[in-house]
Q: What sequence folds into this?
Protein backbone atom coordinates (compact mmCIF):
# COMPACT_ATOMS: atom_id res chain seq x y z
CA UNK A 1 0.00 0.00 0.00
CA UNK A 2 1.44 3.33 -1.12
CA UNK A 3 0.30 6.74 0.05
CA UNK A 4 0.31 7.89 -3.57
CA UNK A 5 0.68 6.45 -7.05
CA UNK A 6 1.30 8.83 -9.94
CA UNK A 7 0.19 7.27 -13.23
CA UNK A 8 2.18 8.79 -16.08
CA UNK A 9 5.75 10.02 -16.38
CA UNK A 10 5.31 13.14 -18.49
CA UNK A 11 5.85 16.72 -17.26
CA UNK A 12 2.74 16.62 -15.04
CA UNK A 13 3.61 13.28 -13.48
CA UNK A 14 7.28 14.12 -12.99
CA UNK A 15 6.49 17.55 -11.53
CA UNK A 16 4.14 15.77 -9.14
CA UNK A 17 6.94 13.34 -8.32
CA UNK A 18 9.29 16.22 -7.48
CA UNK A 19 6.76 17.73 -5.09
CA UNK A 20 5.81 14.36 -3.61
CA UNK A 21 9.46 13.52 -2.97
CA UNK A 22 10.08 16.87 -1.28
CA UNK A 23 6.99 16.30 0.88
CA UNK A 24 8.28 12.91 2.02
CA UNK A 25 5.37 10.90 0.64
CA UNK A 26 5.60 7.15 0.15
CA UNK A 27 4.86 7.00 -3.57
CA UNK A 28 5.80 5.62 -6.95
CA UNK A 29 5.46 6.79 -10.53
CA UNK A 30 4.03 4.28 -13.00
CA UNK A 31 5.31 4.94 -16.52
CA UNK A 32 4.26 2.92 -19.55
CA UNK A 33 7.23 3.80 -21.77
CA UNK A 34 10.80 2.77 -21.12
CA UNK A 35 12.05 6.31 -20.69
CA UNK A 36 9.23 8.63 -19.73
CA UNK A 37 9.11 12.37 -20.24
CA UNK A 38 5.79 12.35 -22.10
CA UNK A 39 4.92 13.80 -25.49
CA UNK A 40 7.40 16.63 -25.02
CA UNK A 41 10.30 14.26 -25.69
CA UNK A 42 9.24 14.03 -29.34
CA UNK A 43 9.32 17.82 -29.83
CA UNK A 44 12.22 19.06 -31.90
CA UNK A 45 12.48 22.34 -30.03
CA UNK A 46 10.84 23.96 -27.02
CA UNK A 47 11.24 27.70 -26.54
CA UNK A 48 8.37 28.62 -24.20
CA UNK A 49 9.32 26.87 -20.95
CA UNK A 50 10.49 29.63 -18.58
CA UNK A 51 14.18 29.53 -17.76
CA UNK A 52 15.05 26.77 -20.22
CA UNK A 53 15.62 28.94 -23.29
CA UNK A 54 15.63 26.98 -26.54
CA UNK A 55 15.94 23.30 -25.70
CA UNK A 56 15.02 20.02 -27.36
CA UNK A 57 11.94 18.32 -25.97
CA UNK A 58 13.99 15.22 -25.25
CA UNK A 59 16.49 17.17 -23.15
CA UNK A 60 13.73 18.94 -21.25
CA UNK A 61 11.95 15.65 -20.54
CA UNK A 62 15.27 14.14 -19.40
CA UNK A 63 15.81 17.08 -17.06
CA UNK A 64 12.37 16.56 -15.48
CA UNK A 65 13.09 12.87 -14.98
CA UNK A 66 16.63 13.38 -13.65
CA UNK A 67 15.48 15.93 -11.08
CA UNK A 68 12.69 13.67 -9.85
CA UNK A 69 15.02 10.68 -9.49
CA UNK A 70 17.72 12.76 -7.77
CA UNK A 71 15.13 13.79 -5.18
CA UNK A 72 14.27 10.14 -4.52
CA UNK A 73 11.34 9.43 -6.84
CA UNK A 74 10.77 5.78 -7.62
CA UNK A 75 9.78 5.12 -11.23
CA UNK A 76 8.20 1.77 -12.08
CA UNK A 77 7.69 0.77 -15.69
CA UNK A 78 4.39 -0.82 -16.66
CA UNK A 79 1.01 0.05 -18.12
CA UNK A 80 -2.10 0.52 -16.01
CA UNK A 81 -5.08 -1.27 -17.56
CA UNK A 82 -7.77 -0.43 -15.01
CA UNK A 83 -8.61 0.98 -11.60
CA UNK A 84 -11.00 0.04 -8.79
CA UNK A 85 -12.31 2.40 -6.14
CA UNK A 86 -12.21 0.54 -2.83
CA UNK A 87 -13.28 3.52 -0.77
CA UNK A 88 -10.32 4.09 1.51
CA UNK A 89 -7.89 3.28 -1.29
CA UNK A 90 -7.62 2.74 -5.03
CA UNK A 91 -6.46 -0.50 -6.66
CA UNK A 92 -4.57 -0.23 -9.94
CA UNK A 93 -4.57 -3.14 -12.36
CA UNK A 94 -1.28 -3.54 -14.23
CA UNK A 95 -0.65 -5.16 -17.59
CA UNK A 96 1.58 -7.78 -15.97
CA UNK A 97 -1.35 -9.10 -13.96
CA UNK A 98 -0.32 -7.66 -10.60
CA UNK A 99 -2.26 -5.08 -8.59
CA UNK A 100 -1.05 -2.02 -6.69
CA UNK A 101 -2.97 -0.17 -4.01
CA UNK A 102 -2.66 3.44 -2.94
CA UNK A 103 -4.57 5.83 -0.73
CA UNK A 104 -4.44 8.46 -3.48
CA UNK A 105 -3.86 8.38 -7.24
CA UNK A 106 -2.83 11.15 -9.61
CA UNK A 107 -3.92 10.40 -13.19
CA UNK A 108 -1.37 12.05 -15.48
CA UNK A 109 -1.45 9.86 -18.57
CA UNK A 110 -1.83 12.80 -20.92
CA UNK A 111 -3.17 12.56 -24.43
CA UNK A 112 -2.26 10.58 -27.54
CA UNK A 113 -2.10 11.67 -31.19
CA UNK A 114 -5.50 11.68 -32.85
CA UNK A 115 -6.09 9.49 -35.86
CA UNK A 116 -7.51 11.05 -39.01
CA UNK A 117 -9.42 7.91 -40.00
CA UNK A 118 -8.85 8.11 -43.76
CA UNK A 119 -8.38 5.07 -46.02
CA UNK A 120 -4.82 3.80 -45.94
CA UNK A 121 -3.90 5.42 -42.62
CA UNK A 122 -4.08 2.31 -40.47
CA UNK A 123 -2.62 0.00 -43.12
CA UNK A 124 0.40 2.22 -43.78
CA UNK A 125 1.15 3.38 -40.23
CA UNK A 126 4.84 2.64 -39.74
CA UNK A 127 5.30 2.34 -43.50
CA UNK A 128 5.31 6.05 -44.28
CA UNK A 129 2.51 7.24 -42.01
CA UNK A 130 3.81 8.77 -38.78
CA UNK A 131 2.55 10.83 -35.85
CA UNK A 132 6.01 11.99 -34.75
CA UNK A 133 8.25 13.90 -37.15
CA UNK A 134 11.21 14.03 -34.78
CA UNK A 135 10.95 10.28 -34.23
CA UNK A 136 10.71 9.25 -37.88
CA UNK A 137 11.83 12.25 -39.94
CA UNK A 138 15.35 10.91 -40.53
CA UNK A 139 13.89 8.07 -42.60
CA UNK A 140 12.70 10.63 -45.15
CA UNK A 141 15.92 12.54 -45.69
CA UNK A 142 16.00 13.80 -49.27
CA UNK A 143 12.42 12.67 -49.89
CA UNK A 144 9.01 14.33 -50.16
CA UNK A 145 6.80 14.68 -47.09
CA UNK A 146 3.28 15.83 -46.32
CA UNK A 147 2.33 17.35 -42.97
CA UNK A 148 -1.37 17.54 -42.10
CA UNK A 149 -2.51 20.10 -39.55
CA UNK A 150 -2.43 23.80 -38.75
CA UNK A 151 -1.51 23.95 -35.07
CA UNK A 152 1.79 24.32 -33.24
CA UNK A 153 2.70 20.66 -33.58
CA UNK A 154 2.13 20.64 -37.33
CA UNK A 155 4.25 23.76 -37.81
CA UNK A 156 7.06 22.39 -35.64
CA UNK A 157 6.94 19.11 -37.55
CA UNK A 158 7.11 20.91 -40.90
CA UNK A 159 10.02 23.07 -39.75
CA UNK A 160 11.92 20.02 -38.56
CA UNK A 161 11.26 18.14 -41.80
CA UNK A 162 12.21 21.12 -43.97
CA UNK A 163 15.83 20.63 -42.89
CA UNK A 164 15.78 16.98 -43.94
CA UNK A 165 13.37 16.50 -46.80
CA UNK A 166 13.58 17.54 -50.44
CA UNK A 167 10.13 19.06 -50.14
CA UNK A 168 7.49 19.51 -47.46
CA UNK A 169 3.83 20.16 -48.20
CA UNK A 170 1.60 21.38 -45.39
CA UNK A 171 -2.14 20.79 -45.77
CA UNK A 172 -4.54 22.48 -43.35
CA UNK A 173 -8.32 22.53 -43.37
CA UNK A 174 -8.66 26.21 -42.55
CA UNK A 175 -7.50 29.33 -44.35
CA UNK A 176 -5.27 30.34 -41.44
CA UNK A 177 -2.84 28.61 -39.08
CA UNK A 178 -3.66 28.20 -35.39
CA UNK A 179 0.03 28.05 -34.50
CA UNK A 180 2.17 30.85 -33.07
CA UNK A 181 2.70 33.57 -35.69
CA UNK A 182 6.47 33.68 -35.19
CA UNK A 183 6.84 30.01 -36.08
CA UNK A 184 4.39 30.27 -38.98
CA UNK A 185 6.39 33.17 -40.45
CA UNK A 186 9.54 31.09 -40.18
CA UNK A 187 7.82 28.19 -41.94
CA UNK A 188 6.66 30.45 -44.76
CA UNK A 189 10.26 31.56 -45.31
CA UNK A 190 11.41 28.02 -46.14
CA UNK A 191 11.95 27.61 -49.89
CA UNK A 192 11.17 23.89 -49.91
CA UNK A 193 7.84 24.26 -48.08
CA UNK A 194 4.48 24.51 -49.87
CA UNK A 195 1.34 25.42 -47.92
CA UNK A 196 -2.11 24.30 -49.07
CA UNK A 197 -4.96 26.06 -47.30
CA UNK A 198 -8.53 24.75 -47.04
CA UNK A 199 -7.26 21.34 -48.05
CA UNK A 200 -8.23 17.93 -46.67
CA UNK A 201 -6.34 14.66 -46.86
CA UNK A 202 -8.91 12.09 -48.01
CA UNK A 203 -6.81 9.00 -48.76
CA UNK A 204 -3.30 7.61 -48.38
CA UNK A 205 -2.21 5.22 -51.12
CA UNK A 206 0.63 2.77 -51.54
CA UNK A 207 1.60 -0.87 -51.87
CA UNK A 208 3.51 -1.79 -48.73
CA UNK A 209 4.59 1.82 -48.21
CA UNK A 210 3.23 5.32 -48.78
CA UNK A 211 3.45 6.34 -52.42
CA UNK A 212 0.85 9.07 -52.81
CA UNK A 213 -2.00 10.95 -51.15
CA UNK A 214 -5.35 12.24 -52.33
CA UNK A 215 -6.01 15.86 -51.40
CA UNK A 216 -9.27 17.77 -51.72
CA UNK A 217 -9.01 21.56 -51.89
CA UNK A 218 -10.41 24.69 -53.50
CA UNK A 219 -9.20 23.55 -56.94
CA UNK A 220 -10.70 20.09 -56.67
CA UNK A 221 -9.28 16.67 -55.85
CA UNK A 222 -5.73 15.73 -56.84
CA UNK A 223 -3.39 12.81 -56.23
CA UNK A 224 0.04 13.90 -55.08
CA UNK A 225 3.14 11.64 -54.85
CA UNK A 226 4.79 11.67 -51.41
CA UNK A 227 7.05 9.36 -49.44
CA UNK A 228 5.93 10.23 -45.92
CA UNK A 229 2.74 11.48 -44.27
CA UNK A 230 2.99 13.14 -40.87
CA UNK A 231 -0.34 13.62 -39.12
CA UNK A 232 -0.58 16.40 -36.54
CA UNK A 233 -4.35 16.86 -36.20
CA UNK A 234 -4.61 17.06 -32.44
CA UNK A 235 -4.67 14.69 -29.53
CA UNK A 236 -7.22 12.72 -27.55
CA UNK A 237 -7.12 11.94 -23.83
CA UNK A 238 -5.37 8.72 -22.81
CA UNK A 239 -7.80 7.82 -20.07
CA UNK A 240 -9.04 4.43 -21.15
CA UNK A 241 -7.79 2.84 -17.94
CA UNK A 242 -10.27 4.99 -15.98
CA UNK A 243 -13.29 3.45 -17.69
CA UNK A 244 -15.62 1.87 -15.15
CA UNK A 245 -15.39 4.63 -12.59
CA UNK A 246 -18.29 7.10 -12.20
CA UNK A 247 -15.86 9.81 -13.24
CA UNK A 248 -17.09 13.16 -14.51
CA UNK A 249 -15.74 13.80 -18.01
CA UNK A 250 -15.96 16.64 -20.51
CA UNK A 251 -15.33 15.60 -24.08
CA UNK A 252 -13.33 12.63 -22.85
CA UNK A 253 -11.13 14.79 -20.61
CA UNK A 254 -11.33 14.48 -16.83
CA UNK A 255 -13.31 17.28 -15.20
CA UNK A 256 -11.12 18.76 -12.47
CA UNK A 257 -10.38 22.29 -11.34
CA UNK A 258 -7.03 23.97 -10.73
CA UNK A 259 -6.72 21.93 -7.53
CA UNK A 260 -6.83 18.81 -9.76
CA UNK A 261 -9.54 17.16 -7.62
CA UNK A 262 -12.00 14.94 -9.48
CA UNK A 263 -15.49 14.03 -8.30
CA UNK A 264 -14.03 10.82 -6.83
CA UNK A 265 -12.29 11.35 -3.46
CA UNK A 266 -8.66 10.28 -3.61
CA UNK A 267 -8.41 10.53 -7.40
CA UNK A 268 -6.73 13.56 -8.94
CA UNK A 269 -6.09 14.52 -12.57
CA UNK A 270 -3.10 16.50 -13.87
CA UNK A 271 -1.69 17.52 -17.23
CA UNK A 272 -3.20 17.03 -20.65
CA UNK A 273 -5.70 14.48 -19.34
CA UNK A 274 -7.45 17.25 -17.38
CA UNK A 275 -10.06 19.47 -19.00
CA UNK A 276 -8.51 22.93 -19.30
CA UNK A 277 -8.09 25.74 -21.85
CA UNK A 278 -4.31 25.45 -22.38
CA UNK A 279 -2.20 22.29 -22.66
CA UNK A 280 1.47 23.19 -22.49
CA UNK A 281 4.50 21.90 -20.58
CA UNK A 282 4.29 24.81 -18.17
CA UNK A 283 0.62 24.16 -17.34
CA UNK A 284 1.29 20.43 -16.96
CA UNK A 285 4.07 21.14 -14.47
CA UNK A 286 1.78 23.50 -12.57
CA UNK A 287 -0.86 20.77 -12.42
CA UNK A 288 1.66 18.36 -10.92
CA UNK A 289 2.43 20.79 -8.11
CA UNK A 290 -1.24 21.56 -7.47
CA UNK A 291 -2.21 17.90 -7.52
CA UNK A 292 0.31 16.97 -4.83
CA UNK A 293 -0.82 19.90 -2.69
CA UNK A 294 -4.35 18.53 -2.92
CA UNK A 295 -3.13 15.00 -2.16
CA UNK A 296 -1.40 16.23 1.00
CA UNK A 297 -4.64 17.85 2.14
CA UNK A 298 -6.60 14.69 1.33
CA UNK A 299 -4.16 12.54 3.29
CA UNK A 300 -4.20 14.94 6.23
CA UNK A 301 -0.52 15.72 5.80
CA UNK A 302 -0.93 19.51 5.95
A:
Amino acid sequence: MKELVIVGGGPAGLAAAIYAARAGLDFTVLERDGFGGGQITSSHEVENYPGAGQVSGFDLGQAFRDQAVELGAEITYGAVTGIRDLGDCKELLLDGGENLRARAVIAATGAAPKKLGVPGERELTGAGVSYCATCDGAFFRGKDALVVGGGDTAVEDALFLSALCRSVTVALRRDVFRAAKRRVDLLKSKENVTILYQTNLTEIRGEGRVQSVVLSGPDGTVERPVDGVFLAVGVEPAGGWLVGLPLELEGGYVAAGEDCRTNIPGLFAAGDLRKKPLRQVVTAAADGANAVTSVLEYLGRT
Remarks:
- The first helix runs from residue 11 to 22.
- The two ends are 20 Å apart (CA to CA).
- Helices lie at 11-22, 57-70, 121-124, 133-136, 152-162, 181-188, 281-299.
- The chain is about 25% helix and 30% strand.
